[in-house]
C-alpha cells in the first residue's frame, strides 16, 4: 500500500485538500483555545465538549426541519451564553490559581458536559445531513464534498471577523490589554472580570461555529469531544499564544501532515505520526529557547 | 462501662455481619423466585444499546413468568433480575459483578452490553464459578480463554462479515475477489477483520487495502480515496455505529463506486433512517432479523417477537434486544434440564444446550460461543423516491427474503 501514492499521484492532491479543510476547522477551535489561554492562562480541557454542544444545536435545527447550515449562526449565539455561564459558575473561581487547578476544573466540566449531553441527547451517533453536493475536480479523480468546503469557508470568515473585532472594538482592545498585563489593565480602568467572561464566551462561540461545521461534515456523539481538545491543544502549542496566523498555518499544516501520513505510512500510523511531529517540534523549540537564553546571558 | 459498651457494639456488629452474610448466600432462589443478576449500561456511551439489552431481558422474563415460569423439581419458579448500572465502564462492570455475587448472593448472571464489558466481568464470574449467559459480547477473545462458566448466545465476531466475502466470490463466478478493509482499532472490529482474513485465505482472495482506523477518527476520506484509486470488488467496514455512519456519509459525498459494501452495526446506527437513500444497497451483518423462520414456544417467531416488542416498548427491536431475550430462554431450558439449583449442575446443563429459539438455534461450542446460528446479511433497499428504506435479508440464501442487488449501481446512475 505504501506505493499507492506513486501509482495515483492525484491522491496527494486529494490528501492535501482534505487536510486543509479539516485543518481549518481545527484551527478555529484552536484559536478559541489560544485566546482564552492567552488572556486567562487557563487550559480548557472541555474545549471539545463545547464543540460537540455547538454541533448538537445544529443537529436539532436539522431535526426541526431547518437547514443545519443556519447552525453556524445560531450555535455561536447560544454557545456564547453557555460560555459566560460556565465562566460565572466555575472558571472565575480558578482564573487566578495555578494552571493545574484550572486543568482539573475544566476536566471536571468536560466529564459533566459529556454525561449531561448523553443524558439529554442520548448515546446514538448522529449526523446532520447538509444535502450539499460534491465538487468534482481533475476529471473526477479528486472530490471535495461541498459540506467540507462550506465549513472551511465559514471558519475562515469567522476568524477574519474575529481578528477585525479584536483590533477595532473596545472590548477587543480590553481583551488584548488584559492579555498583556491584567493588573495594569485593571488599574487603567478595564473591568477584567467582564473581559474574562467575554473571552470565555467568545471561545465558546467559536467552538459553537466549529461544532455546527462538525455536525455537517462528520458525526456527533456526546463522548467524541476529546479529539478536538487534543488537536487544538497541539495546534496552540505549535503556534504559540496570541498568534492567529500561526494558529491557522499550524492547523492546516497538521491537517495536511495527518492526511499525508495516512497515505504514506498507513491509517494506523496517522495519529502516531502527528504526535511524533509534536514531540519533535517541542524538542526543537526547547533547543532554540535554550540557545536564546545563553545568548541573553 | 465504656469498655463494656465497646465490646457490646463489636459483638453486635459482628453478629449483624454474620447474619447479613448468611442471609445473602440464600438469595439465589428466594421462595419461588430465581434471582438473576445483571450489570447493564444504563448511562454512559453504551446506554442506548444497554437499554435495548435490558428491554430484551425484561420482555423475556415477563413472558416466561406469565407462561408458568421455570419448573424445577416439580415446583414452578419465577425469574427476577437484579440490575445495576455499570455506566458503560469496564472497571465498574467488574466491581458490580463482584457485588452481585458477593453481596447480593446472585448465583446466575446475565451478560452486560458489549464485548469490552463482558471481558471485564467474565474473570469475576469465572472466579466464583457462577454461570453467565451473555448476549452482547461477540469478541473472539472471550472464547479462547478457556472460560467454563461463560455462554454466549450470539455468533462470535469473526463470523460477522465473512459471509460477505463468500457472497462476493459467488457473484464473481467463484473467482477470487479484491477486498478493501477498514476496521477500527478495537477488540471487536479487529476480530471481524480476522474473520475476513480467514475468508480471504479460504477463497484465495486478495486484500488490497487494510486500513486500521484510529478510535477517535470520524473521517474516512483517506481510506475512501484509496478505495477510489484501487477499485476493489468489495469494501468491508467495521467501526461500530460511528464507523457505519461515517462510511455511508463519506462514500456518498465522495461518490465512491464499489460493487459491494459490507458493514457491521447498521441497525444500531439506524442507517436507513439517518441516511435514507444514501445508505441504499449497503450490506449489513446482523445476528438476527425478524423475517427469519426460527420458532419457539414463548415468542413464536421473529415477526411475533417484533410485534410484541413494539407493543411493549414502542420501537422495533434491534438484534441486541432479540439476543438478550434469547439468553433468558436458554436459562429456563437449562434450569429445567438440570432440575436443580446447584450452579455446577446448571453450568453443565447450559453446556449441553441444544435448542431452537425465535432468535436462532443455540448450541455452545467448548469455548462458550454459539456455533449453530449463522450470521445473516441484509441489504438496505429503498423505494423509488427514497422516503422509505427497509432492511431485506439477502444471505445466506436459505433465509433470503429478497434478491441481492449486485453490483451496486454507480453514483452517476443513482
Short description:
The complex is a heterodimer of chains A (297) and B (414). Chain A has 297 residues and is an all-alpha fold. Chain A has 12 helices and 2 strands, in the order αααααββααααααα.
Shape of chain A: globular
How many individual β-strands of chain B? 18
SS class of chain B: alpha/beta
Low-confidence stretches of chain B: 22-26
- Provide the spatial order of strands within the biggest beta sheet of chain A: 1-2
Question: Rg of chain A, please?
Answer: 20 Å
Please describe the biggest sheet of chain A, giving its number of strands, its sense, and whether it closes into a barrel.
2 strands, antiparallel
Tell me roughly what share of residues is in helical segments of chain A.
over 70%
Count of helical segments of chain B? 12
Q: Which chains share the greatest interface?
A: A-B, 43 and 42 residues
Range of helix content of chain B: 40-55%
C-alpha Rg of chain B, in Å? 23 Å
When the domains of chain B are counted, the total is 2
SS element count, helices of chain A: 12
The low-confidence runs of chain A, each spanning 5 or more residues with pLDDT under 50, are none
Order of helices and strands of chain B: HEEHEEHEHEEHEHEHEHEHEEEHHHEEEE
Say what oligomer this is: heterodimer
CATH superfamily of the largest domain in chain B: Response regulator
Biggest beta-sheet profile of chain B: 7 strands, mixed
Amino acid at each position: 500500500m505504501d506505493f499507492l501514492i506513486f501509482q495515483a499521484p492525484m491522491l496527494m492532491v486529494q490528501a492535501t485538500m482534505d487536510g486543509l479543510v479539516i485543518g481549518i476547522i481545527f484551527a478555529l477551535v484552536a484559536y478559541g483555545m489560544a485566546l482564552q489561554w492567552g488572556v486567562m492562562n487557563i487550559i480548557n480541557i472541555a474545549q471539545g465538549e463545547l464543540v460537540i454542544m455547538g454541533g448538537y444545536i445544529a443537529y436539532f435545527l436539522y431535526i426541526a426541519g431547518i437547514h443545519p447550515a443556519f447552525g453556524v449562526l445560531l450555535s455561536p449565539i447560544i454557545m456564547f451564553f453557555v460560555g459566560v455561564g460556565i465562566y460565572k459558575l466555575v472558571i472565575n473561581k480558578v482564573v487566578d490559581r495555578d494552571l493545574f487547578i484550572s486543568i482539573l476544573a475544566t476536566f471536571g466540566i468536560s466529564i459533566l458536559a459529556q454525561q449531561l449531553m448523553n443524558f439529554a441527547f442520548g448515546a446514538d451517533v448522529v449526523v446532520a445531513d447538509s444535502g450539499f453536493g460534491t465538487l468534482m475536480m481533475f476529471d473526477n479523480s479528486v472530490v471535495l464534498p461541498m459540506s467540507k468546503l462550506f465549513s472551511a469557508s465559514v471558519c475562515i470568515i469567522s476568524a477574519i471577523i474575529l481578528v477585525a473585532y479584536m483590533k477595532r472594538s473596545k472590548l477587543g482592545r480590553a481583551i488584548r490589554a488584559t492579555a498583556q498585563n491584567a493588573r495594569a489593565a485593571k488599574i487603567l480602568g478595564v473591568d477584567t472580570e467582564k473581559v474574562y467572561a467575554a473571552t470565555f464566551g467568545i471561545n465558546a462561540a467559536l467552538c459553537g461555529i466549529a461544532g455546527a461545521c462538525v455536525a455537517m461534515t462528520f458525526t456527533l456523539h456526546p463522548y467524541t469531544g476529546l479529539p478536538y481538545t487534543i488537536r487544538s491543544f497541539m495546534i496552540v502549542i505549535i503556534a504559540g499564544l496570541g498568534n492567529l496566523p500561526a494558529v491557522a498555518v499550524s492547523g492546516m499544516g497538521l491537517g495536511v501532515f495527518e492526511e499525508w501520513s495516512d497515505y504514506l505510512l498507513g491509517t494506523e500510523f496517522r495519529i502516531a505520526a502527528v504526535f511524533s511531529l509534536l514531540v519533535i517540534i517541542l524538542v526543537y523549540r526547547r533547543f532554540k529557547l535554550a540557545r536564546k537564553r545563553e545568548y541573553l546571558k | 462501662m465504656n469498655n463494656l459498651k465497646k465490646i457490646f457494639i463489636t459483638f453486635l456488629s459482628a453478629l449483624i455481619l454474620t447474619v447479613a452474610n448468611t442471609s445473602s448466600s440464600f438469595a439465589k432462589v428466594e421462595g419461588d423466585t430465581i434471582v438473576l443478576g445483571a450489570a447493564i449500561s444504563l448511562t454512559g456511551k453504551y446506554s442506548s444499546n444497554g437499554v435495548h439489552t435490558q428491554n430484551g431481558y425484561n420482555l423475556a422474563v415477563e413472558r416466561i413468568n406469565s407462561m408458568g415460569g421455570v419448573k424445577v423439581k416439580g415446583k414452578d419458579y419465577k425469574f427476577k433480575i437484579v440490575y445495576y448500572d455499570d455506566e458503560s465502564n469496564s472497571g465498574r462492570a467488574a466491581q458490580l459483578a463482584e457485588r452481585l455475587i458477593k453481596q447480593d448472593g446472585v448465583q446466575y448472571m446475565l451478560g452486560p452490553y458489549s464485548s469490552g464489558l463482558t471481558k471485564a466481568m467474565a474473570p469475576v464470574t469465572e472466579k466464583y464459578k457462577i454461570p453467565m449467559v451473555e448476549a452482547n459480547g461477540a469478541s473472539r477473545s472471550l472464547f479462547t480463554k478457556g472460560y467454563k462458566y461463560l455462554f454466549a448466545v450470539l455468533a462470535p465476531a469473526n463470523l460477522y462479515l465473512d459471509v460477505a466475502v463468500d457472497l462476493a466470490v459467488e457473484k464473481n463466478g467463484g473467482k477470487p475477489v479484491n477486498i478493501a478493509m477498514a476496521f477500527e482499532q478495537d477488540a471487536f472490529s479487529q476480530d471481524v477483520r480476522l474473520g475476513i482474513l480467514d475468508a480471504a485465505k479460504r477463497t484465495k482472495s486478495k486484500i488490497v487495502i487494510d486500513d486500521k482506523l484510529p478510535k477517535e477518527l470520524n473521517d474516512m476520506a483517506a481510506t475512501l480515496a484509496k478505495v477510489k484509486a484501487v477499485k476493489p470488488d468489495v469494501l468491508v467496514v467495521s467501526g461500530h455505529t460511528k464507523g457505519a455512519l461515517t462510511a455511508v456519509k463519506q462514500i456518498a459525498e465522495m461518490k465512491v463506486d464499489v460493487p459491494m459494501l459490507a458493514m457491521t452495526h447498521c441497525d444500531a446506527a439506524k442507517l436507513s433512517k439517518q441516511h435514507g437513500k444514501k445508505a441504499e444497497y449497503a450490506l449489513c451483518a446482523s445476528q438476527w432479523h425478524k423475517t427469519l423462520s426460527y420458532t419457539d414456544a414463548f415468542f413464536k417467531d421473529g415477526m411475533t417477537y417484533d410485534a410484541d416488542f413494539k407493543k411493549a416498548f414502542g420501537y422495533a427491536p434491534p438484534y441486541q434486544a432479540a439476543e438478550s431475550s434469547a439468553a433468558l430462554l436458554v436459562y429456563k431450558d437449562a434450569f429445567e434440564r438440570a432440575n436443580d439449583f446447584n450452579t455446577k449442575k446448571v453450568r453443565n446443563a447450559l453446556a449441553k444446550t441444544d435448542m431452537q429459539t425465535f432468535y436462532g438455534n443455540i448450541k455452545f461450542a467448548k469455548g462458550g460461543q454459539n456455533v449453530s446460528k449463522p450470521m445473516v446479511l441484509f441489504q438496505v433497499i429503498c423505494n423509488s423516491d427514497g422516503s422509505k428504506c427497509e432492511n431485506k435479508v439477502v444471505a445466506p440464501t436459505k433465509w433470503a427474503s429478497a434478491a441481492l442487488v449486485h453490483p451496486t449501481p454507480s453514483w452517476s446512475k443513482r
